[in-house]
Amino acid sequence: MNLHSHIGPKIGPRTIGDHLRIVGALMIREVATRFGREGLGFAWLVGEPLIFAFGVLLMWTLLKPAYEHGLRLAPFIMTGYMSLLLLRHMISHGLSAIIANTGLLYHRHITPLHIYISRFALEFAGTTVAFVVTYGFLLATRSVTLPHEPLLLYGGWLLLAWLSTGIALVLAAIALEHEVVERVVPVFTYLLIPISGAFTMAAWLPAKYRDLFLLVPIPHGIEMIRAGVFGEFVPTYYDASYIAAWALGLNFLGLVLLARTQRNIEVE
Q: Per-residue pLDDT tens for 174-205?
């Protein structure tokens, strides 16, 4: 999308506290704009992924046996689907962030990066709370035990979120210059499903295909999450440094592309 900017110059250096206040205000505004100021409001930020998660869990429970390759089906599906939801929400909401909020760029304090960070933070918070609530439900129904390695679970979730922001930033920056990307990205996110590891594990694949599968960084995060949940008795394959390198590279590339396109953003 070729946009031409008339944005005035931004003000000089600000403190971290200033940036945090801007992002916090944008998050509150985003919640009010998206979900309204009355009724459930913020609860829908968590409620939306919860509805999808429980719907998918119910469908798989009705269609599949209780165990898949020796694993309890419910926690296997929950860990995979919630991870996929985090990835897809980051991408989809990042894609429309600037288009929906160009008017905010009239304010000299606000930059496109503030808008992206506020959206990513909201999606991360909502999906994380939904993950915890779903896990708590499965724990209450004795479908899963407490995580065997909590730090591995947290690390995998954070690395996956970091990778997701990188992918989202790159796609969003490209979409600002090429409108066709907005139409292609939904298809792209569906194509990610079979190679994401959300509904399969690396250990289930033949060795000759496993190495190809693990060239994709996304399964490494999901395998880490499952290793944290199921423990050493379930074979997992992951490299934390590999997904971290991808996340760092994609976020850096996304910031470079965003800086290049920022001057072409039109304030309406």
A: 988 888 888 888 888 888 889 999 989 999 99
Unique residue bearing structure tokens 């079979």? 194
CB 110 within 8 A of CB 19: no
The residue assigned the tokens 């496993």 is 210
The two three-digit tokens of residue 144, written as one number: 């899963």
Contact 218/195 with Cβ under 8 angstroms?
yes
pTM for this prediction:
0.85
For residue 211, the tally of other CB atoms under 10 A from its CB is: 11
